[in-house]
Amino acid sequence: MSKVIEIQEAIDKIKDGDVIMVGGFLACGTPLKIIDALVESGKKDLTLICNDTSYVDRGVGKMVVAKQFKKIIASHVGTNRETGNQMNSGETEVVLVPQGTLAEQVRAGGSGLGGVLTRTGIGTLVQEGKQMVEIDGVEWILEKPLRADVALLYGTKVDKSGNIYYEGSTQNFNILMAAAADTVIVEAEEIVEVGELNPNIVRTPGIFVSYIVQGDVL
Amino acid sequence: MDKNQIQDFVAKRVAAELKDGDLVNLGIGLPTRVANFVADDINVTFQSENGFVGLGPAPDDSCIDMRIVTAGGTPSSILPGGMFFDSSTSFSIIRGGHLDMTVLGALQVDEKGNLANYMIPGKMVPGMGGAMDLVAGAKQVVIAMEHTQKGNPKILKEVNLPITGVGVVDLIVTEMGVMKVTEEGLVLTEINPEFTVEQVQEATEAKLIIADDLKEMV
Q1: What values do phi and psi take at A29, rounded to 5?
Q2: pLDDT tens column, A135-188
């Protein structure tokens, strides 16, 4: 069964108020066409889980400018001045999370784990309000799992059952987010027939993917 | 020295800390320049937290692939023997003690090795990105920066901005000298002959311990 849908159908899967995860690192490995369509759609009150908020004119950064988020969970927002403005004015809630912790929270969310224990952030603001766990005399921060209603991913080559192959440094959070959302939509640079992808190079199993959208070539 | 010369001078001195076979992660800005000064007779591998080892130089305009970027979002290349991976693997390398060294910039650093480099509350809030994981996991944390910020000391008795890591810094390299973080405090081990010990102390809030065998920084 083909999972390929039109971009408008993909946008219709996202509701106002949804929590969305978006793959990519400074927009490298972000489904740019879906994001542009989301800006166009005017969906609002969304919560974003993404490594960063990109730039004002690229990827999720455009959605920040369009004020579509009520909350943003990210490791870095410094490349998009609009995020900082909205954070300082109190317009948007911004939760800064160490990048490695964010990766593991998403992984835990997709892997049936109750959380992860890390030393990252001990003695910093990151530790505030969090449960500490002592194991064999060492203190760890308990970081809870993260999940989303919809994950929006990028793939370089995707077969019609959703198996994803990634080129270059585009894997980043895509691989982790694929397992951590109720609905998973991947934007493919190239869609191929089932059987055309060498199973040895598939990095995201198609079983995680709900829908596929044709994207543009980077 | 102008700003450019200062940055190259600091980067060159940091590069002298590298050993054959080291796996290293360089922060954005001045630290990135360290890669330009690696000695010819050693082999050093650079890790990029967005998901690869074997980070190479920026490519020519003719062969830019937007699927291969640095952690700063700029076009990059991968060297023979390198590989790409996801953000979880990337931070397993970083947090898991597999990095020999990380070189980072700082807003403030103090005599106990505390580091502040990710936010000035209410003003500049870029976020920690991978910095908190890097200082938590790298075997050696080197701070490479200009000694002062517009004449104001950045090397303090105690940092007063939000902390990135507690007691994590091993070495501080600036255009004025090289300082080692020890149990007793900051030990000035090398000095740029353009400055006197008094001048370095004047530009430093923390009390410097002068090494018995104080060397010239070259």
Answers
A1: 95, 20
A2: 999 999 999 999 999 999 999 999 999 999 999 999 999 999 999 999 999 999
ipTM field: 0.96
CATH code for the domain of A172? 3.40.1080.10
Domain membership flag for residue A75: yes
The burial class, CB within 10 Å (0-12 / 13-18 / 19+), for B58 is: exposed
For residue A118, tell me if it sits in a domain: no
- CATH level 2 (architecture), domain B3-216: 3-Layer(aba) Sandwich (3.40)
Phi, psi of A85 (to 5 degrees): -60, -50
Q: What is the dihedral of CA A30, A31, A37, A39, to 10 degrees?
A: -10
Cα separation, B128 vs B113, whole angstroms = 17
A76: β partners: A52
Residue A62 distance to chain B (closest CA, Å): 16
- Confidence class of residue A72 from pLDDT cuts 50, 70 and 90? very high
**Count of domains observed in chain A:** 1
Answer yes or no: do B130 and A99 touch at CB < 8 A. Answer: yes
- The answer as to whether A162 is a domain residue is yes
DSSP-derived letter for residue B162 is P
Question: Domain for residue A157, yes or no?
Answer: yes
Quote the CA–CA distance of B183 and B167 in Å, as a whole number: 10
Give the domain range for residue A69: 16-96+147-214
Q: What is the pLDDT of residue B218?
A: 86
Question: Domain boundaries in chain B?
Answer: 3-216
Searching chain B, which residue's CA lies closest to the CA of residue A73? Answer: B127
Contact A94 B125 (CB under 8 A): yes
* Identity of the amino acid at B97: G
pLDDT in tens, A88-98: 999 999 999 99
Q: Indicate yes or no: pTM above 0.90.
A: yes
Q: State the Cα–Cα distance between residues B101 and B94, nearest whole angstrom.
A: 10
CB of A201 less than 8 A from some CB of B: no
Catalytic site positions of B: 49
Task: Determine the angle formed by the axes of helices B87-95 and A99-110, rounding to 10 degrees.
Answer: 130
Q: Which residue of B lies nearest to A119 if distances are taken between CA atoms? A: B136
Task: Round to whole Å and give the CA distance between B142 and B101.
Answer: 7
For A175, the token pair is: 């691989």
